[in-house]
Design brief:
Radius of gyration: 36 Å
Active site: 118
Cofactor: Mg(2+); Mn(2+)
CATH topology of the largest domain: D-amino Acid Aminotransferase, Chain A, domain 1
Largest sheet: 7 strands, antiparallel
Number of helices: 25
Protein name: DNA ligase
EC number: 6.5.1.2
Number of strands: 24
Distance between the termini: 84 Å
Shape: elongated
GO molecular function, one term: DNA ligase (NAD+) activity
Bound molecules: nicotinamide-adenine-dinucleotide, zinc ion
Helix content: 25-40%
CATH superfamily of the largest domain: DNA ligase/mRNA capping enzyme
Length: 684
C-alpha cells in the first residue's frame, strides 16, 4: 500500500518538525544531519512535483527552529536566512549556470566568488549602536531569535566596542559561534569522568553553551566567533563586495576566518573545495562544507532571494562525518599482543566518504560509558583517517530485543582464559605462545637477541614462516628442514643452512633467557632473571602459587598473577614441553638465590660499574649476574660507586674510579664471587 502524495508530504513534514524541535530547541538531535537533509530533499522533491500541496508553513519554506521560551524573543532588523545546499559537483555547476543565466553573462566571463569555510556552529546576530554592542541574538526562525546578549558578551572574539574611526550609527553583524575541536574534546572528557552527558559534536556543544541561562557557565566554555555578513548598516557606506565587507569587519575588530579566498568560476570553486577537503582535519574547528558567495554586491542584489535563502550563495556540503545505523553484533578481536577489543558490527552505512560496517568499541569501560547494546541505533563518526567511532546511542530507539554486551571469558582465537586486571580497561588473552592472533609477535620476541638469540631470523622471515604455515609455535622452529626453507623468498642454500645452524645453537640457553623468551606479560629480562635464580628450575616455577611468586625480589601481585595464569594454560604448557622435547636445554641450579634471613642478597646495597672487555662473559651477562647477586649496576662511576669491575681496554671509567679512590676489581675476583654463590658465567 503506497501513501498518497498528500499523506507522504504530511508525514515528512511531521518528521522534520519533530527533528527541528530536538535539534534547534533541545540541542539534542535524534538523527544525523545527513538523514535530516535526505528527508528535506525528499519533501522538496514532492512539493515540486505537486505545487498545489505547497503551504507556507512547510519546513521547506522556513528557516531554523522556534526561539526557546526561556530567553526573551527579539525581532531581527533584517531576516536571517539559510543557505541552499549543493551536495555534488553537478549541483555546483547548476548553481553557477543559473547565476550566469540570470545575470545574462557571456560564457567567457567568469563569476568571482568569495569562498568561505562553512563553520559548523550557531549563527548569531550582533547589534551595535554608536559602536557599542547592545544586543546579541540567535537566528531562531530567521525573523525572531532569542536574546543571548549576556552570554555572547563572554566571548572574547566579539568586540564589545567597535574599533577604528568610522563607526556607523547602527550596525548588525552576523557570524558563527563555534567551539574548537580541542575544547569540545576536553569538555567531553571531563563530562565523562563526572558522569555527565557528553555533547554529540562541537556544533551541539556550541549551541548548548550559548543557550545557558547562567552566563558564567558560557564564559567557561571558551567559545569563539567568526563574522561573515552584515544585516544592517546605518550611517556608513555599504562595502561594494563581499571581500571588502570582510576587510571592513576586520577593521572594526571582528574575527574573520583566515581561510577565506576570492575564487573565479566553477574551476576556482572546485579547486578550493579540494584544498579545504584536504585541510579539513587540520583546522581547529569543524566545518561541514564551504560557502560560495557571488562577490559583487550589485550582482547579489540583482540575483535576490528565494523563500529562505539567497540566490547568490550556496553551501557546498562536505561528506557527512556522522551517520546513524544499528549494531548487528559485537565481535571480539584479539590484537597481536593479546589485547581483546570489542568491535561493533554495523549495518553498513555511508559516512566520511566511505561505507563503514565496523566501529571499535575500545574496551568494556567504553561500552559501559556508551551504555551500548546489540540492536541499538547508534551515531557513528568517521573523521579523516581516524577509525570509525560510536559517539552515541539513541536510547529512544532501543528495540525490545536489544541485548547487553559482555566480555567473553575465553579468547575467541585460541580459547585460553581472558584476563582483565582490576582498574584496567583492557582485557587480554593469556595464551601468549599458542594464540594464533599473537603468533607472529610471540615468535619475534622468542627469537630476539636477549631471548633465544637466533641470529638471522628477522621479522620478515617470521612473517613468511607463519604465513606459509611452516611455523605455528616456537617449537616448530626447531623442526625446520633445509628443503622447506629453500622454498621461501630470498632464502638460498647458504643462508638457509646458516639459519638452521643458528636455530640449533639457540637450544643451549639459560633458564632466565628461556623464561624471558616465553613472553609472559610484564616479565622483562630482569624479572625473568630474578625468577630463574629464585627458583633455580623450571618445574618449581610452573608449580609456584601466586604467594610464592611474590617472594621473588621485584615481583609484585600483578606480575605474579601473569606468571601464574600463563602456566595454567594447557596450550602454553604444551609449547613449553615441546620446546624441551626438541632439545632446548639449560643448566638447572638449586633454588639457592632466595633471600637470606635478613632478606638480602650477597651484593645487596652495593653499586657496581662494569667496564672494559671481560673474557668469560659478555658485559650484559656480567651485569645480569651482578644483579642476581643483589647489586645495583650503574652506567657511570661516582663517589657512590662501591666498586668497578674492569676488564682489559677499560678507559675513562677506570681513570675516574682511580681518581675518586673507588676500588677496582678484575674478572678473576668476579668469577670467584660467582663460584662461591653457586653461579656460572653464561653466554657464548
Ligand atoms: N539532525 C537533525 O535532526 C537536524 C534538524 C534540523 C536541522 N539540521 C541541520 O541543520 C542544518 C540546516 O540548518 P540551516 O538552515 O542553518 O542551514 P545550513 O546550516 O545548511 O546553512 C546556513 C547556515 O550556515 C552557517 N554558516 C557557516 N559559515 C557560514 C559562512 N561562511 N557564510 C554564511 N553562513 C555560514 C550560518 O549559521 C547559516 O545560518 C542542516 O545541516 C541540517 O542537517 C539537523
Ligand atoms: Zn588467544
Amino acid at each position: 500500500m503506497s501513501l498518497t502524495p498528500s499523506d507522504a508530504i504530511e508525514s515528512l513534514r511531521q518528521q522534520i518538525r519533530e527533528h527541528d524541535y530536538h535539534y534547534y530547541v533541545e540541542d539534542d538531535p535524534r538523527i544525523p544531519d545527513q538523514d535530516y537533509d535526505a528527508l528535506m530533499l525528499q519533501l522538496k522533491k514532492l512539493e515540486q512535483e505537486h505545487p498545489e500541496l505547497l503551504t507556507t508553513d512547510s519546513p521547506t519554506q522556513r528557516v531554523g527552529g522556534v526561539p526557546l521560551s526561556s530567553f526573551s524573543t527579539v525581532q531581527h532588523v533584517a531576516p536571517m536566512l539559510s543557505l541552499d545546499n549543493a551536495f555534488s559537483e553537478q549541483d555546483m555547476q547548476d548553481f553557477v549556470r543559473r547565476i550566469r543565466e540570470r545575470l545574462k553573462l557571456p560564457a567567457t566571463s567568469a563569476v568571482e566568488f568569495a569562498a568561505e569555510p562553512k563553520l559548523d556552529g550557531i549563527a548569531v546576530s550582533l547589534l551595535y549602536e554608536k559602536g557599542s554592542l547592545i544586543r546579541a541574538a540567535t537566528r531562531g526562525d530567521g525573523e525572531f531569535g532569542e536574546d543571548i546578549t549576556a552570554n555572547v558578551r563572554t566571548i572574547t572574539a566579539v568586540p564589545l566596542r567597535l574599533l577604528g574611526g568610522s563607526v556607523p550609527l547602527r550596525l548588525e553583524v552576523r557570524g558563527e559561534v563555534v567551539m574548537s575541536k580541542a575544547t569540545f574534546e576536553a569538555f567531553n572528557r571531563r563530562a565523562v569522568t563526572k558522569n555527565e552527558k557528553p555533547f554529540v559534536n562541537p556544533r551541539n556543544a556550541a549551541a548548548g553553551s550559548l543557550r545557558q541561562l547562567d552566563s558564567r557557565v558560557t564564559a567557561k566554555r571558551s567559545l569563539d566567533c567568526y563574522c561573515y555578513a552584515l544585516g544592517l548598516l546605518e550611517g556608513g557606506e555599504w562595502p561594494e563586495d563581499q571581500m571588502a565587507l570582510l576587510e571592513r569587519l576586520r577593521q572594526w575588530g571582528f574575527k574573520v576566518n583566515p581561510e577565506i579566498k576570492l575564487v573565479s568560476g566553477i574551476d576556482g570553486c572546485s579547486a578550493y573545495y579540494s584544498q579545504m577537503m584536504a585541510r579539513r582535519d587540520q583546522l581547529k574547528y569543524e566545518i561541514d562544507g564551504l560557502v560560495f558567495k557571488v562577490n559583487r554586491r550589485d550582482w547579489q542584489s540583482e540575483l535576490g532571494y528565494v523563500s529562505r535563502a539567497p540566490r547568490w550563495a550556496i553551501a557546498h556540503k562536505f561528506p557527512a562525518q556522522e551517520a546513524m545505523t544499528t549494531v548487528e553484533s559485537v565481535e571480539f578481536q584479539v590484537g597481536r599482543t593479546g589485547a581483546i577489543t570489542p568491535v561493533a558490527k554495523l549495518k553498513p552505512v555511508f559516512v566520511g566518504g566511505v561505507t563503514v560496517s565496523n566501529a571499535t568499541l575500545h574496551n568494556m569501560d567504553e561500552i559501559d560509558r556508551l551504555g551500548i547494546q546489540v540492536g541499538d541505533f547508534v551515531f557513528i563518526r568517521r573523521a579523516g583517517d581516524v577509525i570509525p567511532q560510536v559517539v552515541r546511542v539513541v536510547l529512544e530507539k532501543r528495540p525490545d530485543a536489544a541485548r547487553p554486551i559482555s566480555m567473553p571469558t575465553h579468547c575467541p582465537a585460541c580459547g585460553s582464559d581472558v584476563e582483565r586486571e582490576e582498574q584496567q580497561a583492557v582485557a587480554r588473552c593469556s595464551g601468549g605462545l599458542s594464540c594464533p592472533a599473537q603468533r607472529k609477535e610471540a615468535l619475534k620476541h622468542f627469537v630476539s637477541r636477549r631471548a633465544m638469540d637466533i641470529d638471522g631470523l628477522g621479522d620478515k622471515l617470521i612473517d613468511q614462516l607463519v604465513d606459509t604455515n611452516l611455523v605455528q609455535s616456537p617449537a616448530d622452529l626447531y623442526m625446520l628442514q633445509l628443503s622447506s626453507l629453500l622454498g621461501l623468498e630470498r632464502m638460498g642454500e647458504k643462508s638457509s643452512a646458516k639459519l638452521l645452524k643458528a636455530i640449533d645453537k639457540s637450544k643451549s640457553t639459560t633458564l632466565a633467557k628461556f623464561i624471558y623468551a616465553l613472553g609472559i606479560r610484564e616479565v622483562g629480562e630482569s624479572t625473568a632473571k630474578a625468577v630463574a635464580s629464585f627458583f633455580g628450575n623450571l618445574q618449581s616455577i610452573k608449580e609456584a602459587e601466586i604467594e610464592r611468586l611474590q617472594e621473588v625480589p621485584d615481583v609484585g601481585t600483578v606480575v605474579a598473577k601473569h606468571i601464574h595464569v600463563f602456566f595454567r594454560q594447557p596450550d602454553n604448557l604444551d609449547v613449553v614441553n615441546r620446546l624441551i622435547e626438541v632439545g632446548v636445554h639449560w643448566t638447572e641450579g638449586q633454588p639457592s638465590r632466595t633471600k637470606d634471613a635478613s632478606g638480602s642478597l650477597p651484593l645487596t646495597g652495593q653499586t657496581v660499574v662494569v667496564t672494559g672487555t671481560l673474557e668469560s662473559v659478555s658485559r650484559d651477562d656480567a651485569k645480569a649476574l651482578l644483579e642476581q647477586l643483589g647489586a645495583k649496576v650503574a652506567g657511570s662511576v661516582s663517589a657512590k660507586t662501591s666498586w668497578v669491575l674492569a676488564g682489559p681496554g677499560a678507559g675513562s671509567k677506570l681513570s675516574k674510579a682511580e681518581a675518586l679512590g673507588v676500588e677496582v676489581r678484575d674478572e678473576k675476583y668476579f668469577l670467584s664471587l660467582l663460584e662461591s654463590n653457586g653461579l656460572q658465567p653464561t653466554g657464548d
